[in-house]
Design a protein that fits this description.
Number of helices: 7
Number of domains: 1
Strand content: under 5%
Structural class: mainly alpha
Order of helices and strands: HHHHHHH
Radius of gyration: 22 Å
């Protein structure tokens, strides 16, 4: 079993555990894209019930985005910990006495195919988390706008 398969198996075990506990209740909702791309005329014509409904949908989508972010963070953590386990005791073999730990770390990774593959997976997951970072908070703020709009129109 190669490293990518091990990482996939690791993620599958996490997914199975979350599903078994009923913790992953929110899934992708195709209606979100339509809500997020409404123009101002459409938003102004919403009834209070519609605005509050859209608010709830956006809050649920924020939860979905957060679960995606958390999943990618677990990949990063898994890869980082595995890399340290593989190269931790071999770092003294790279660089001189005064070499920075980063030089030793990346040299050890470069020489080990398993650590190199894990590092590639880690970098991919880090890029995904960079793309997802703060998205759930932005969607929550948009949901709050719809919530406030619905409350205001009810009065």
């Amino acid at each position: 079993m190669n490293n990518e398969q091990k990482a996939v198996e690791f993620l599958q075990k996490i997914d199975d555990w979350i599903e078994d506990r009923g913790a992953d209740l929110v899934h992708k909702n195709d209606e979100v894209e339509r809500i997020l791309n409404m123009n101002s005329n459409t938003i102004n014509s919403l009834t209070p019930t519609e605005a509050l409904s859209y608010s709830f949908i956006l809050f649920a989508h924020a939860e979905y985005l957060q679960s995606l972010y958390n999943k990618e963070r677990s990949v990063v953590d898994f890869c980082r910990d595995s890399i340290w386990f593989i190269v931790g005791n071999k770092m003294d073999n790279y660089g001189g006495q005064y070499a920075k730990w980063e030089v030793r770390y990346f040299s050890a990774i470069k020489e080990n195919p398993l650590a190199s593959e894990l590092n590639r997976l880690k970098l991919t997951a880090e890029a995904r988390t960079s793309r997802l970072k703060d998205k759930s908070e932005i969607v929550k703020r948009m949901g709050t706008v719809f919530q406030d709009l619905g409350k205001r129109r009810n009065y």
